[in-house]
Specification:
The structure is a homodimer. Chain A is an alpha/beta fold. The first copy, chain A, has two domains: 4-107 and 285-293, Nucleotidyltransferase, domain 5, CATH 3.30.420; 121-279, ATPase, nucleotide binding domain (Nucleotidyltransferase, domain 5), CATH 3.30.420.40. Helices cover 39% and strands 20% of the residues of chain A. Chain A has ten helices and twelve strands. Chain A has helices at residues 39-54, 91-99, 108-119, 178-182, 184-195, 200-209, 213-237, 252-262, 269-274, 286-293, and strands at residues 4-9, 13-19, 25-32, 62-66, 70-71, 76-77, 103-107, 127-133, 137-143, 146-147, 241-245, 277-279. In chain A, strands 3-2-1-4-7 form a five-stranded mixed β-sheet. Chain A has a five-stranded mixed β-sheet with strand order 10-9-8-11-12, with helices on both faces. A two-stranded antiparallel ribbon of chain A has the order 5-6. In chain A, helix 6 packs across helix 7 and helix 7 crosses helix 8. The radius of gyration of chain A is 19 Å and the shape is globular. Chains A, B: This is ROK family protein.
Chain lengths: 295, 295
């Protein structure tokens, strides 16, 4: 009773889990996505994994977290940069036909937000805004334990928020967008451009730990942009809690702690004294758990 | 049955209405605020107006919309620039003591948002983001006909959202804040600074109507900033409808119509094709109606 399948469909890995009604993982499987072999092959692999984790168990439904853009209402994967070859694939229809059970689709950041809010760092909070900062930036907004999708599924798409109209022109996002200025990719780009530091964000953090001033300057700028983005969200919906996930946020010393301080500079005094920004806690498993919660 | 008092406490006027459960005004009174005579005098005047509009009727409670900053939960008016001399005034406690009925306080933009969403331009929409652009900028977010205040009452405080970190330094808001760049005051300031046009926003609109290129340039910049602010809100919560109020928005030809077009430039394609931005419809009465809806 109350068992669901949660699927985390990523560009690199596909993860499938059997999750109980409390959001705990009962069975878990992971495989390489290999989307270059065609989407049919990926769906075939996912289907086998579903059968394997659910083995004989009665399930209430299947939830899938996938990279955007998606059509959430129709359950269609449109044409995600991270899933080459997927082009208007009606994944919900395909899987519900195959398994005769309700199937739900939402984007990866929304699904992680749902998991963090319900069984991760956000437990007990009324409103949680989740932001993941890695290669790109994603977000999701959870109110009273439920995902707030917005009218057309674009709530939480803060990657495209404008932070500096004179800033970097991202290839598919706004000039000076949050993702263009504050993502891991942006850290690597600015480090190379300003100081000839190659090796991406990882190298920047390594150098910063060694005391390199140029690397620290890049990180400091990043923290400022992150603080502005969070302040903008706080002045729009004032969530009780911000939960920060993704590789960049794993740097507690260089990113999270300075961010918690710097954001106060951009907030009304009462907001500054009440804002809460904490790290995500379900790293790696948030996807399947949150996906199962879509059911 | 179902009658409430709605109070719109502004810097210039105080309006008091008896409002029925459908949000229709039954009785209405207006007077000058004259806050320079002291807050006690204003509260005395409000009390007399309450007695007059409710005359013998049984009321369910009193709602008040007032300029911020406020402490909504405690019902205290902190120290609004628009109400000089009001400093930590526990208005809710004072009026509930006087009238023996529940009293609710919220900020003027939130209250107007509630009215527009429920009986104004937002009727029938699930999520409505209201923005008022006049001397300053205010906002309010209504989900399923209820005000979304956020954890500490700062939802909708988009005036302080950062639009351009290198932009104008407002006296009490962020550098490059939405209000600092897109309000009526900002129109007047930029017109004087860039082109020596005095006479404020009103004169800028008059000149623009006469074909003045400088005035049109200022207005065009304003529309760009408004479009960026709306795009940022859309990418954060994707409301089904934006309702625009305030004096600046009354210029349909020079502000609203170009804004509806320009905002699309800053949105994901599907958002661009689905965004709805409409003018407010309860001008002047939104305050008392929305205040009554707090009850």
């Amino acid at each position: 009773m109350g068992l669901r399948i949660g699927i985390d469909l990523g560009g690199t890995n596909v993860r499938v889990a059997l999750v109980n009604e409390k959001g705990s993982i009962v069975e878990f499987l992971q495989a390489s996505t290999e989307s270059e072999k065609g989407y049919q092959q990926v769906i075939e692999k996912m289907s086998l994994m579903i059968e394997k984790v659910s083995e004989g168990a009665e399930i209430d439904g299947i939830g899938i977290g996938a990279p955007g853009p998606l059509d959430i209402k129709k359950g269609v994967i449109l044409s995600p940069p991270n899933l080459p070859g997927w082009d208007n694939i009606p994944l919900v229809e395909i899987l519900s036909g195959k398994f005769g059970t309700p199937v739900f689709l939402n984007n990866d950041a929304n699904v992680a937000a749902l998991a963090e809010a319900n069984v991760g760092s956000g437990v007990g909070y009324e409103s949680v805004f989740y932001i993941t900062v890695s290669t790109g930036i994603g977000g999701g907004f959870v109110i009273n334990n439920k995902l707030f999708n917005g009218a057309h599924g674009y709530a939480g798409e803060v990657a495209n928020m404008i932070i500096d109209p004179n800033g970097y022109q991202h290839s598919v996002l706004n000039k000076g967008s949050f993702e263009g200025l504050a993502s891991g990719t942006s850290i690597g780009r600015r480090a190379e451009q300003d100081f000839g530091i190659t090796g991406g964000a990882k190298q920047v953090f390594t150098l910063a730990a060694e005391g390199n001033e140029q690397a620290r300057k890049i990180i400091d700028e990043t923290v400022t942009y992150l603080a502005m983005g969070i302040a903008n969200i706080a002045h729009t919906v004032n969530p009780e809690l911000f939960v920060m996930g993704g590789g960049v946020m794993e740097s507690i010393e260089f990113i999270l702690l300075p961010l918690q301080e710097k954001v106060k500079k951009f907030l009304f005094p009462e907001l500054a004294s009440s804002i809460k920004i904490v790290p995500a806690s379900l790293t790696g498993k948030a996807g399947v758990i949150g996906a199962a919660m879509l059911v």
